[in-house]
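In response to a reviewer's request, we include the raw inputs and outputs for one of the modeled complexes. The two entities were modeled together in a single run.
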Amino acid sequence: MKLAVALVAALIFAALPLLTTSNYIMGIGVSALIFTVAAAALNLIYGYTGLLSFAQLGFWGIGGYVSALTVVTFGGNFWWGLVWAALINAAVALVVGYPTLRTNRHAFVIVTLTFALLVNLIARDWVDLTRGALGIPNLPPPTAFGYEFGTTGRFYWIAWAFSVAMLAFLYALCTSRIGRTLVAIKQNEPLVRAQGISPMPYKLSAFAISAAITGAAGGVFSFHLRIIDPLFLDFYYMQTFLIIVIIGGAGSFWGVVVAGIAMSALPEALRFSADFRMIIYGLILVVAMFVMPSGVAGWLRERRLARLRQELQ
Amino acid sequence: MSAILEVTDLRKAYAGVHALDGVSFAVEAGSVTGLIGPNGSGKSTAIDCISGFQKLDSGKVVLAGADITGQPAHHNARAGLMRTFQTVRVYERLPLRDNLAIAAQQFDPATWVDELLRTARYRRAVEASEKRARQLIELIGLQRYYEAEVGILSYGQKKLVALAAALMPHPKIVVLDEPVAGVNPSRIREIEVALRQLNEAGETFLIVEHNVEFITNLCHRVIVLDQGRKLAEGTAHDIHNDSRVLEAYLGTTPEIAAAEMRAQA
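The model returned the following structure tokens for the whole complex.
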């Protein structure tokens, strides 16, 4: 049922460039799709495994820079750029994660935050590679078999195909026994160990997969913007991913996907009031957290549990 | 009968305090063995060290002929030693069925590739695990909660879930850390009956517990620890009449205790 709804929704999203000619709306569509993927990747490590990672921002930035540099400096194409963005991020996540995941969850938060800030510093200061604050403008549009994805409408297809593929992969992972084990690790790590499961490989893999997907998403987004500079590592992105996960309900796959689309569209829908839109946005967030402290999915779950309790009384 | 678990000269100190000061004992296959002692006698430290949750300073742990000394907890679980915890540990926000399935999944041969492709090996593993889960749930009487999140159960029911989970992979020995502490008295009897049935079906238990009646009813052999040392070992009857044990527990000898009782009467 959920899958059928998801399929229909995916097809409706695919049809967006046929329904509108507005670059503005399709641009929002691209952002919504890419942010949803990045948020779903954060959900894997935070919502499922219980590890709050601010490193996502760093992976996002590394992904953006790696794909841009693959094309501009190293003469590769966009597609290889995405592959490299994913691989390099997975490798970085293994190196950062292996020592960090041996500490406790609080230390993990601090280290990942520091990592994100460090990536930002590198983007600014390693001028020979990243061109510093000037950034790398004029990223060429991707091409495939001689077809150039030169307009926002055409680029939208790339974002759509990428998102559907990544979300399908994450869905398969999260609903498998591996996903269930990640939830178990989040809920009770000593019990997991007492049942013959070593948590470390699971946590490390979740972190690396999350990093690879976030990096590839960053790669796609940098080519949507057509420029990459240190602003790509603005905390705005991390905040957006985190808001999506928390509003949607950490640990709920569909909650986060729905929230990803909704929360990307919301600030735009509020543009009717240019002066107050961020204030209204903030108010909506605060009210949402008051009413549904564990997100939309958490709220639905509480209601389901209450019904169940009543039935079993 | 042969020993399934054999521990020799366990030693463990925290900041100079000897939690374990040379403890040795064995658990026979197919037996129920009790490990009792006053607070701070080293019971919990002993089973934490045996199961791999804490590192021993020295000593040796042998499980079914294999040396598992110093191995991590997940290794020992796979070797066949399952344990429960004093403060009950379950996956509160997962259904009962998943609580049991996770406990067994490390022990079946299906990999993630099998799962992805839904191979025969995966289906067989899931079927076997489901069958075992249904048996155990019937034994603990929680059939109607099979699909329900474990968080909605009472404390005593959660203890039963933890027991069932520990039994899921057909372990060689189950170590129970205070299985009836904090459980309401009517349910203690249920747990006792379930454990006896399981033992008659061949399961081996090592039980740490404060409830003397429970231990007396169930255990073939009882080991008493005091201040990190083994104070006594024998049948429940022997232990009851051991003056050293009474002194450790009550701080008095039987003669004084008897005199006090007469005085009170």
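As requested, we also summarize the result in words. Residues 2-274 of chain A form a domain with the ABC transporter involved in vitamin B12 uptake, BtuC fold (CATH 1.10.3470). The longest strand of chain A covers residues 143-144.
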